[in-house]
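for the recovery benchmark. tokens below, seq after
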């Protein structure tokens, strides 16, 4: 993303934001409330359009592509929204298989096999396939949503606050799962987060958004070496100091 400017009416959210994400890494978007983390992700996946700048995903300029090119590009990524966004009228298996049914000609028997493999891949029990979202715990919803995001074997996985709403143990397990799956499947992960534990343990590189722009970008070591008030607030406050001693 280069020179991104985002504005909602008179509210300037991004003022010349620049970030670079490398193939195969887990990249974090970190920032306080209102810093535009989720907005930036939505611009990457073509749900929002910035006022100006360029967004290049998998070699495609998403701001200047045809409808057919956009549809093909969407098949190459998976998205896990903060709420999970499962269809409440469908059970877990149906939720996971919906993109396979809509976008491929794979026979139903093979689709069912793929769905079962994804359910196991994210650590859900086999019987979860027949459960509806209302019957799932928060952690199970996250895992079912992740399985759905992985159904099309994506090159990029976009995660919006993936550990939000989970208790510390559940959040740690989910972070570990993401890291294991990245190692197993080799996809790139872009993760919106405010969870410092995720930054300390899972993310390879990240940016810190603040003052409507990127105040730092790099590895944890790179960012901690920078002198900036926003960096100090995140990593040298009480929570950051406690985490650094763990």
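predicted aa per position
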């Amino acid at each position: 993303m280069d020179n991104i400017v985002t504005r909602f009416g008179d509210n300037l959210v991004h003022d010349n934001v620049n970030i670079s994400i490398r193939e195969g890494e887990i990249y974090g978007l970190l920032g306080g409330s209102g810093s535009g983390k989720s907005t930036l992700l939505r611009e990457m996946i073509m749900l929002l359009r910035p006022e100006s700048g360029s967004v290049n995903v998998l070699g495609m300029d998403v701001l200047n592509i045809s409808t057919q090119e956009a549809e093909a590009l969407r098949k190459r990524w998976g998205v896990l929204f903060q709420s999970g966004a499962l269809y409440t009228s469908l059970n877990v298996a149906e939720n996971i298989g919906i993109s396979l049914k809509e976008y491929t000609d794979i026979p139903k028997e093979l689709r069912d096999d793929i769905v079962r493999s994804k359910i196991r891949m994210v650590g859900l029990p086999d019987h979860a396939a027949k459960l509806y979202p209302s019957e799932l715990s928060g952690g199970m919803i996250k895992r079912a949503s992740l399985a759905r995001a992985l159904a099309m074997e994506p090159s990029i996985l976009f995660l919006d606050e993936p550990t939000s709403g989970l208790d510390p143990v559940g959040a740690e397990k989910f972070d570990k799962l993401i890291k294991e799956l990245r190692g197993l499947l080799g996809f790139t992960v872009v993760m919106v987060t405010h969870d410092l534990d995720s930054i300390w343990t899972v993310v390879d590189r990240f940016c810190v958004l603040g003052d409507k722009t990127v105040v730092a970008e790099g590895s944890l070591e790179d960012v901690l070496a920078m002198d900036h008030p926003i960096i100090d607030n995140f990593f040298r406050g009480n929570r950051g100091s406690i985490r650094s001693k763990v």
